[in-house]
Each structure stands twice: as structure tokens, then as C-alpha cells.
Amino acid sequence: MYLKGSKWSMLKKRKPLKLGRIFFLLVLIGGAVYFDQVIVPVTPPLFIPTPTPTRPPEAYVADAEGLTKDGKYLQAIDAYQQAITVDPQNAANYVNLAKVQIYSQQYKAAQTSAENALLLNPSNPQAYAMRAWALTAQEEFLPAESAVKRALELDSNNALAHAVYAELLVRMVEADQAPINALEKAADESRLALALEPAMMETHRARGIVLHNTSNYELAIQEYLTAINLNPNLPDLHLSLGLAYRSLDPPQYDLAVEEFTKANALNPADPLPDTYIARTYVTIGEYAKAIQYAEQAKNDAPTDPYMWGNLGTMYYRNLQYEDALLPFQLAVRGGNVPDSDQVVIGLPLDYGRIAEYYYLYGLTLAKLNLCNDAVQVSALLKQGVPNDETAFYNADEIVNICQANLKITPTVEILPSAIPTETPQP
Fold first, then answer.
1. pLDDT, position 46
2. Fewest Cβ atoms closer than 10 Å to its Cβ: which of 99, 230, 296, 422?
């Protein structure tokens, strides 16, 4: 029985099932299950940065060692610093970083690296040796001696420590701060270092330094050459070798200039190679070349009074007194660098190279008939360096020139005092 006219007939026939639609639904269900079980677990969450794979510290260390061998010290420093970032508890990386920083003349940074290594391992003899080496380069002799002795207490056969000790003693002698028999002790230390590690650059370098400073130039040259063969990328080795060639009898000036030029190529910002080249050329009478290199050294270090004194010397030797005057004034009196806001602090009178700048300055003043200042420089030399025979002789010569000038010119130009009462401050 059914309701007439109703659309809801119980006897109404069902539509046949469509197999294609069923299959499509099954595919969707299977895809959803696959996505949930397979894709989702390996998909990173949205809007969260993808982590960058971290290289193992050994990879950075390998890079640093290769760069060091190639003489690419700044890149090697960066590689060691990355290794330390990944593995900050490895004291060896700090020690190796300190060595490369010494190679690149970053002595204060090397000291810090060595001290960081000691914080991690207070009984590390190599770290103490590196600290001593960095302190020696900064002329901090007493703490350097303490550090190197501690290194040898921890390891009496540490070749690097013996080499550093030898160099430290020589530098103390040069600075007139050495104990009795320091050079003999330095010689013993350098021989022991070489016996312990005959294939180490540092031991040959130390032996060369000792031989050089005891006037055994030919033997020093052989040690420097061996050290350079082990590491040809250190500017100071080439500088030392060049100075040894220049000290031979007879001097080997060509070889000296060649080594200074190599040092300059390795570290163009250092004024010393250009300075030594200038002094070598002026010695053999090639004044134009001497002036050229002295100018370059001054440009490398425009606030260094020694560079100005060196430039003045080159002009003076070439009889260019007017050109020599300003460089000597800046070396002795100090003042503003031309066309710059930089300031040069004048050198207080002392024996050695500084006394030479003073008497050449006085002679320049005298030859330019600026005798008011020249006579004051003469008096200062006699009072300040009375035991320097060359300075004393030239102090008299300054007065002689001025007296001769008076016979020619009755009036002498008077300038402001050549010797300031206060040293100019930057």
C-alpha cells in the first residue's frame, strides 16, 4: 500500500551503483593514508628555517693546515676559528691558531689564543711556548721568560720551547735587558732545539738568530736558508737573511735586496722591507732608488717617526737639503702629517739611530743657514749623547758650518725653537 501522489514511495527503485566513482574514492582514501604515514614524517614544519648541515671540526682543521702550508695565513686563521666555533673545547686548535697568528705578525691575538688553550688545559707545554713566543715579539720579556720556563718544566724536550727561549734571550740582549751570559745560554738553547727537532723551521730560525747576533753571518745564512726551505712564506725570515747578506765581508748587496723584496711581496703593508732596501741602496750610492723606497716606507707607516727620519736621511745623502728638512723635523720634533689629520710624535734624543737623525737634522739646518735652530740641536746632542763620538763630532761640525755662514751672510734667519718643550700629542 502506498500514498497516492507521494514522492516517497517505499517501492521506488534504487539507482545502480557506479563502479568508477567507487574506485576514485578508494584512490583518494589510499592517497590520504600514504601522505599521513610517509610524507608528513619527513616534511619539515612550515615557516621554520631549515637547519644548515654543520661540517665536522676536522674538516676545518684540514683546510687550515693546507692553507698554512700554502702561506695563506689569513684564510688559515679563519679556518681555525671556524673549527673552534664547532668544537670550542679542543685546546690544540687554539695552539695552532696562535702559531699562524704569529706567522702573520698578529702577536697580541696569538697571545690570547695561547691563553685560551691554557684555560682548557693548564698543563699544555706547547701553549706555554706559544704564549712565550707571542710575548717575546711584543718585547714583554719577563712574562715571556716565565711562560717558556713553565713550558720546559712540563716538557724538557719541547723543541719549540727551547727555540723560543733562545730567541727570547737574544731579544733581551738587544734591548739591554738580558741576564749575565745570556748569549751563551741562547746558543745552548738553540743547539738543543735543533738536536731535538732538526726538521722544524722554528729550530733553524732560532739557531740562525743566535748565530747572526754573534756575528757568525755565514753560518746564520745557512740556517736561515734551511728555515726558508721548510717555510718560504715568512717575511721575517727573508728580512733576517737579507740583513745577514748585508753584514758579510764583503757585503752581498744584490742578494740582500732580493730577500728584502721577497719579504715585501709577502707583506706589502710592512714598512721594514722598503726601509732596508732604501738603506742598502744609499750605502752603494744609488740615491734615487733609496729615496723611492724610503718614500714607500713612509707611505706604509705615515705616523712612524723612524720612517720620516729614514726619508730625511736619503734626501740628505743626495744633497737635497730642502727636501730633507720636513722629514727630519717630523722625526725629531713631531707634527702633523702633510695633507692629513694624522700626527707624528717626535723621537726623544737617544743613542743609536735616533742620534743620527738629530745630527743630520742639525747639519741640514746649518747647510740651509737656519743656524738659530741648528746651534740648539748641536747643544742638545752634546748634552744628551755625550758618549756618542760620531754625534759629538757632528755637533761641532754644525757650529763650524754656522760660523762659516756668518762670514758669508751677516744675518742668520731665526726660526721658532727646533726643540719643543712638550712632545706633540695626537
1. 44
2. 422
